[in-house]
Amino acid sequence: FPVIITGSEDGTVKIWHSTTFRLEDTLNEGKERVWSIGHLKGSNSIAVGYDEGVLLLKLGRDEPLVSMDSSGKIIWARHNEIQTTNLKSLPSDAASADGERLPLPVKDLGSSDLYPQSLSHNPNGRFVAVCGDGEYIVYTALAWRNKSFGSADEFVWGNEASEFATREGRSKVKVSRNFQEKHTLKPQFVVEGLFGGTLLGLRGSDFVAFYDWAEGTIVRRIDVPVKKVFWSDSGDYLAITADDAFYILEFRRELVDAVLNSGQDVDEDGIEDAFEVVSEVSEQVVTALWVGDCFLYNNSSWRLNYFVGGEVTTLYHLDRPMYLLGFLASQSRVYLIDKDLSVVSYTLLMNLIEYKTLVMRGDIDAAQEILETLPEDQLNNVAKFLESRDLVKEALEVATDPDYRFDLAVQLGDLPVAHQIADQVNSEVKWKQLGELAMTSGKLTLAEDCLMRGKDLPGLLLLFTARGSKSSLKELIPLAKEQGCSNIAFMAHFLLGNLDACIQLLVDTGRMPEAAFFARTYAPSKMSMVVEQWRDDLKKINPKAADSLADPAKYPNLFPHLDMALKAEEIAQQRRLHPVPASEYPQHEGSNTVNLIEEIERLAIGERTGAVENGDIPPHAGAEPIPASGDEAGISVARAAGSLSTQEGTTQIGQRPHAAVDDGSLVESAAGAEHDWGLEDGGQE
């Protein structure tokens, strides 16, 4: 409404109604005297200058006073002037692109006898109620003739065509039917607002109380600081919006009617089971309406969303603040308006909403019939909705996007469908993902094909060692070198017992210290060669450090038990010529506890003369057993990635060796490590 704003030296700013000259509000910000007031033309912004600063105020609201009935007739107010337009009057050649302003012809309908603060159609669209200046007037929608009037600070319609309620002050609410007053409500709390719909809502300070229209009996009190209330057309669902969330409730009409008709006493909180909470969504609603059982709204971020079946879907991102007018099912379009009274529309497929509603109710057969009528570009949207309802199999049947279908197939564990999609897309990421799923499902042949096509070398290494496939490991080595995965190639060589190849790979990749320590542990006879190459490489950086490296051939005194380590290496080499199949693991369990160095020492002093001939030393003493099947079955050469000595300080693959490691333990590792626990081609999957 038009206002007059005044400021005074007592620091107050007063807002007066320009027609009635009634004081509407008083502001006191404590900034001492008021000296100036400015208004930005075309806006609701006011600037006030004080002794101690400037205050910028925004009065009123940007949302226009407008109402649309179910047939598409729109009525809005420009000050006291009432104008109308009709969506059916759009030219036949008018563009209907989403978000485009509609070229609607506007007509002057008349004027209001009071300055409107609210304007709304009744349920059948025949009447329009205007409320303001402490009064209300009901006009006919077509001719704009006065039908009824009275005193009211607020006006709301009921579900019946001529049923409405008015609030006078903060303690009295009158209910009228057929434009005749039926009864008056005088609740025991301060009424701050009214809500119409299936039930009459009275808003308190931090709650809302719903009453029966017929008798004024309380149905239920809900403790939530409500801003607005929206009822579905069927009256079965209710949306309550708060400052930062909205709540969807189901109204149990039959239960409420049974209680009210039985004459039972209802306490001040109403009927406990009158409503059931369906969902809570943390989002600020600006305007909203119901389309069937779908709650359509725009939020504070100006996104047009709808909620159905527990899922929020964004329809469109609005480019400016807009407010919902209504929905026309015949055109499958939802209409919005901005503060300048420009009307735009967006597509909202009614059959899509009906489909989601039927799925939510569990009527899959009826939903399937509607699914056939949906356009193809909406099928992925439908599939995501089905997935949110835990109908993943149905979502896979509906989805069209290959990436999304692959994710659904993996989620279901449907290997054939996932393999078919991966073959079409031919993505390394999908092959790797499918290979992992195949291994988890025990489909090792399929897993190998997927991991190979996905170039997943770590996965192939795990798979080949688990299967005990020696030939596959050999094929993996050149692939790993080609892709620069030296760690995979090293592990494959190590599992196959190719110690010389392991040393050479470390040398080729510039890992001279690791090569030297590896030779010290597993191949003492190669130490001199590796140390010489290490020295030549180190001289390029630090000649002094290079000269400090000791060659075992020149300084055997610095390498205790070296002679026994060389003998142990020979024994290990002989044993590698006769590998024990992984399938015989149970017969040799525990044989890895014997230390070859200790046995050689005992043989050297004659403590175990003839022990080898008598069979006291197990044929593969010192070997660490490897399981024959399962997740770690068939790994060769003394548990490749693990420690190969029972003594402290043993070098482990994958870690940089430490120069301070005890020499004796390294030699003993060399003696007791090398053997072959049977990589077998054709191992059981």
Question: What do you see in this structure?
Answer:
By secondary structure, this protein is α+β, with helices and mostly antiparallel strands. Helices cover 30% and strands 26% of the residues. The strands form nine sheets. It has a four-stranded antiparallel β-sheet with strand order 7-8-9-10, with no helix packed on it. A four-stranded antiparallel β-sheet has the order 11-12-13-14, with no helix packed on it. It is elongated, with a radius of gyration of 42 Å. The chain starts with a strand and ends in a 12-residue tail after the last helix. One of its GO terms (biological process) is intra-Golgi vesicle-mediated transport. One of its GO terms (molecular function) is structural molecule activity. One of its GO terms (cellular component) is COPI vesicle coat. Keywords: Cytoplasm, Cytoplasmic vesicle, ER-Golgi transport, Golgi apparatus, Membrane, Protein transport, Repeat, Transport, WD repeat. It is found in: Cytoplasmic vesicle, COPI-coated vesicle membrane; Golgi apparatus membrane.
